[in-house]
User: Fold this.
Amino acid sequence: MPLFSKLLLIFLVNFTSAFIQGATGFGYALIAMAIMPLFLPMSECSAISAVTVVAIGLQMTLTLRKSLKLKTILLPVLCCFLTINLGLYLLDRFDELLLRIILAALLILVTVLFLYMQKKKVTLPDRWYSAAGAGLLTGISTGLFNIVGPFFMVYYINVCESTLQLKASLEFSFLLAGLYSAFMHTFVYHNINVSVLPELAASVLAVLLAGALGLKLYRKIDKQKITRFVYILLPMMAATLIIKGLI
Assistant:
């Protein structure tokens, strides 16, 4: 694929994913990591996602800093750090097809979990084990695919007092997890290097533009409809990932 075409695809995928996250509070890595592996190696996708998650998290945290309560995020983020290395180790050891299958399974699991919790109005108790469980699962999905949001979202949506606190908690968690993951990708696994700088630049530019636009719509947009659309789309993306890996 010509470099310009690849960079344009990366820009469009990251812009769309970041816009949805800016408008709804989550969804960047779920969408970006479902689409980018269709035309990029999984390790490169994970590296790009790590850097862009930092860019999104920094932008949103600075904007929403007054709504942030550090006590809420402390335990889940610390537990997340405990298992990020496990996810990175699995990323380095597993072959491409197996990684695609794991990602597809995660996409389907997240879809079922969210739809079930919405339908049954299930809530998590505000207890240490809920925070720890969300953090440990997030660490693995962050190390493998830089998917930070789903398990944190399930926890924060049950314990945060307002939508702005929810979004601020998610975005600051993205920032911290992304920084750790980007550090490991750069200095340990070397997935972030000079050769991927054009891809990183295209993705960061896209997410910063989209994040600013999405945040303006955060209070106005119908989040329920977008959420339903995203979780209908995710299983279709999961099937596409597996089919492409088999061809």
Observations:
- The longest helix spans residues 96-120.
- The mean pLDDT is 86.
